[in-house]
Amino acid sequence: MNIAIIGTGYVGLVTGACFAEVGNNVICMDIDKTKINKLKKGIIPIYEPGLEEIVKKNLSSGRLKFTTELDYAVENSDIIFLCLPTPSKKDGNADLSILFSVVKNIAKVLREITIRSDLKVKKFLVSKSTVPVGTADKIKEMIDRELKKFGDKVEVNIASNPEFLKEGNAVQDFMFPDRVVIGVSNGEAEMVLRELYEPFVRTGAPILVMDTRSAEMVKYAANAFLATRISFMNEIANLCERLGADVEKVRIAIGYDNRIGPKFLFPGVGWGGSCFPKDVKALIKMGEENGLNLKIVNSVYEVNEKQKRIIVEKIKKHFGKDLKDKKIALWGLSFKPKTDDMREAPSITIINELLKLGVKIVAFDPVAIPNAKKIFKDKIKYAKNQYDALKNADALVLVTEWQEFREPDFNYMQKLMRTPVIFDGRNIYNPERVKKIGFTYYGIGR
Predict the structure, then answer these.
(1) What pTM was estimated for this model as a whole?
(2) pLDDT in tens, 415-426
């Protein structure tokens, strides 16, 4: 199939590369000339395991192309995927200005095609962006309004196809999905999208077909529920700590309940990233605009914001309120492992709170330091490796559970540090083990 991907951000680039990987002809379009020029050379702007390999492979084969020309992408494709940013406004609602602007421009391109050609034009316009419920209907209204005079010469089918990609595992998630959700209003759009996704569901994953509004809600409901599980466990962890219980034992025990399961029950310093914070806020706003106070969802967000500061409270309790000139090493800057994404990362809140207290911070992350420098500039120092950050440090704060942090040389760490104190924000260390070596240990809910 001939596919256009509008937007080469995280979702768009993964989507385009994976569609090309199974034999489709894909044109990825973006207005960022610098990014597109780099992509044409196989230079990937984000860190995502496995993505660089399939981009380079499909560039070489000619199945994957990059352009800044919207008219070229639209004219040479049958299916157009909208993979555009929908950031949060100050009031929490999703900002759809970029999306709607692109839709209008697509309509203009289709108008020009119909004027030049006597043939009927048929396109499938698919929203993969996370958008408030009812957005597909608004896109259809916009397209119909813009192309009203050309109704007999152009046909545009609107569909919703939310993404469920986990950063750090996105290529695997796309190639082997646990389900594909398609929101359509007619059988032809369903048939086309079923055919497109057939190579990805050969192992039995279902293609779930529904109306566009339900499909749009699926993404918000899924992310809000996963965020709820994490925030719930964080509250249980804080209670465990007060009562002298061990949240790790509690987590394992309730995870064996087949009504609950073990996933997303790990307590820590809070969730972040490009999806959970934005989608939870947007869901709250959708409720408000429709006369509903989503109390559980509101609480989920509030609990998470409070949880991001819990490590700082533990540091203040250990050292006292005067933290000026204390040196703290921080391991992990990205919001989770296997990504360089720092959007809404707990590390940002933790670092900013510590800086207010006069703390000197030396941070290390395997891939996110370039993004951290854009945020903090020279307000903190950046280490060459994890051990370099520990030299003369008064404490280590572990924020992101990168694999290489899981089994460090604790004896060497102790020699490097001024005082051997660990604040384990992800509960990845065995408290008894590190205490025997000579560390003071603080976890979450332990």
Answers:
(1) 0.91
(2) 999 999 999 999
